[in-house]
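Researcher: Quick one. four chains, 988 residues in total.
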Amino acid sequence: MILLNCDLGESFGPWQMGNDEAVIPLIDCANVACGFHASDPLTMNKTVSTLVREGVNIGAHPAYPDLVGFGRRSMAVAAEEITALVLYQVGALEAIAKVHGSQVSYVKPHGALYHDMMHSDETFKAVLKAIVDYNPELPLVMMATADTSRWQALAEQAGVTLWFEAFADRAYDDEGKLLPRSKAGAVLQDIDSIMQQAQQIIEHESVVSVNGNQIRLKAQTLCVHGDNPQALETAKRIRSLIDQAKA
Amino acid sequence: MILLNCDLGESFGPWQMGNDEAVIPLIDCANVACGFHASDPLTMNKTVSTLVREGVNIGAHPAYPDLVGFGRRSMAVAAEEITALVLYQVGALEAIAKVHGSQVSYVKPHGALYHDMMHSDETFKAVLKAIVDYNPELPLVMMATADTSRWQALAEQAGVTLWFEAFADRAYDDEGKLLPRSKAGAVLQDIDSIMQQAQQIIEHESVVSVNGNQIRLKAQTLCVHGDNPQALETAKRIRSLIDQAKA
Amino acid sequence: MILLNCDLGESFGPWQMGNDEAVIPLIDCANVACGFHASDPLTMNKTVSTLVREGVNIGAHPAYPDLVGFGRRSMAVAAEEITALVLYQVGALEAIAKVHGSQVSYVKPHGALYHDMMHSDETFKAVLKAIVDYNPELPLVMMATADTSRWQALAEQAGVTLWFEAFADRAYDDEGKLLPRSKAGAVLQDIDSIMQQAQQIIEHESVVSVNGNQIRLKAQTLCVHGDNPQALETAKRIRSLIDQAKA
Amino acid sequence: MILLNCDLGESFGPWQMGNDEAVIPLIDCANVACGFHASDPLTMNKTVSTLVREGVNIGAHPAYPDLVGFGRRSMAVAAEEITALVLYQVGALEAIAKVHGSQVSYVKPHGALYHDMMHSDETFKAVLKAIVDYNPELPLVMMATADTSRWQALAEQAGVTLWFEAFADRAYDDEGKLLPRSKAGAVLQDIDSIMQQAQQIIEHESVVSVNGNQIRLKAQTLCVHGDNPQALETAKRIRSLIDQAKA
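Model:
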């Protein structure tokens, strides 16, 4: 059964972001901002309170310390510091989850840390180290591609479970990687195409690349968004698709 | 048996503060900065690593979000936000302690939060709430004064244990409160006077006020400092005093 | 001729706030956030670019260093630090204004700094000092009350011009001070009442207090808001009122 | 006449760094931290006050927004944001300089921004744009290498003057670039070797590379440090060398 995950709790102080109330009923897993790229202790507390009430799994969404850049900018952070900042953020969220009778269920690095982890084994290992030292039961969420053997080997060696996520609304290249947003057609706009890609990922563990090739893409979770009406509509329809498959 | 506590881990990024290596062997309890008034994830990780190796208890030292002011400036922070930021900081430290095989053993608010808690029941209750929701086994450290019945009643009601701390090197008024640093004689300079006050606190649970009155002052812990040679020398002599009493 | 001022440029990184584009054509003076309670260099640059294009005066809106609290929380900041942080923020904005062929035209402290300045002569003098040292031609905007003689005396002594601002949509007490937001009726909701108060301030330099007394209130500027539809509608109608009076 | 420059004013809040008082009498130009990698408004005010009293030129030392990383970590900051953050920092320092009767005399980017500017024309142009828009009279300080024609062409096109700086205590490769600190011998330890290199830069506009080749290196300024006894001693001797040459 594929899970739906969504980035959540991304308001900061007086600034609102996203449409958390609307998307929470649709998802299984919430990637909760931990104060480094977004959110603050009070926002985290309110977000977690809602998630626990709605029965959504709480994932830590740690990031580089770059609030103004929303954690989207690659930073040359040393491996031992990455380990420490992941620990710090996971722990902060864990304490807040604990007071609501819950716990952190997985870790999904955010933004540039997420991408840097895919391109640098050193960064990837630094994240793995945080998880294995803290709680090796926590799965690490990363991007599904056609060939994930390299990461699986490193994670297995560390003793950490990987969850791969796919995107119903993003175009893939022949390696099963996301087409960069700078390229035309990188983000699917037509909801029928998006639903078709969702269905193919869920039922056939594959996608059709921009070159028309069928690419293997095995994913445990799909990433959806809730910050605009079309994204919400898409999330609702994918939720129905999954629920029907379940039934 | 009275415990020695000291604020520790107060470096930040490239900036060093204090003399942690020298003072750690002398103390029982370290109040570890959690990133809001000082420290950062990497510094916390290094600090905790040393503390665990040396067998020192790890206390969370949460503060207002005021790095440039070192958490020393009172801020009009709402109660629910105080609760959330204490949780956040305690949790961040707990995760780091956990990877080193240890845990947070108590909570001592820092600077202005520490003082505001003494002057505002709302602030005090907000801190208590964080502790009782997170882990009511964690004692809360606050300042010993002649009459602590008000705080004890509130803490008992919340189900939290209080530890009171006294200062060997600070002058007291007739209510058992510290003379403000702005007043002459507020900080004792003569090491013999400091040792005499330490001894009186430890053996007789009292101090002599600036007016010459003997004031009851019951303390579970003494706060020492390690950031200058005289403070270190004082800490060493108080350590000896306690160890001799033990022997 | 009374001027309309509005807080502007309060987005931060990826977080949007306010409706700057809609309100800019209606106002004379924009109080531009300078990065301490809101905004960032890039946002400031975009804000100033729009203001210059639209011919709106640029005011510096310096604040305490409290992003998560949006500068709304009183902080115990020392006088010399207040002077320095006002200078810092005014200078940062001035450089950005300069590259767009403009300059800072006045200073209006934000949030808690604005209010603290009204309650503490030390804070008020610290702000005056920043202005007089930097550019005594810059007026300082503060709240109009029935009796402003105390501030006028201090400002005159320093050599700084004061501009007093009034609020069309806030209830006043008998001292010409704003009723705290915590009190019922503090914010006027009915647009006719708001327009009536605007007209009275503009034409008669007075308001009717919550107790029904006519209070003298001399203001050079009215503060409007653009962050919700009613506020915008109010701003439009006050703009018309002023333009008609001018005609 | 070659000028001595030194990074200064790098304390932050309660954290001290460097030995500004000792090095200020020895230098011509101070690269003053502007709050993004170090310093804060009050520290800047104190630093500038001392520099003006001692007659040292004030240079802006803008950096990426990375306090915990001291601006030493490359960040993927967009060009328009680099322009804006340089403007912001230069302006903040300018205001503080102005109240002390002085002004910003040049711009030297700090840390990772300094290095990124050497490796990316886009970053270099973004810095140039800030300067030319703000005040094209301000020279931009960057690293001297054997061939600086590319940067000189870009700077000339923009209308900005470049000042090149050399290092007496760093080993150079055959392109006149600094040997990375990770390589053995990258930092010269022997004071006689350092003085010899200083003399060669000053008198012959060249250095001997690690491979023994004489490399052309034309520099308007030498960068010295004041944060340890040997650095101070070196700075003193280079000061004497220059003063004797002058005499």
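Chain B has a mean pLDDT of 96.
Researcher: Thanks, that's what I needed.
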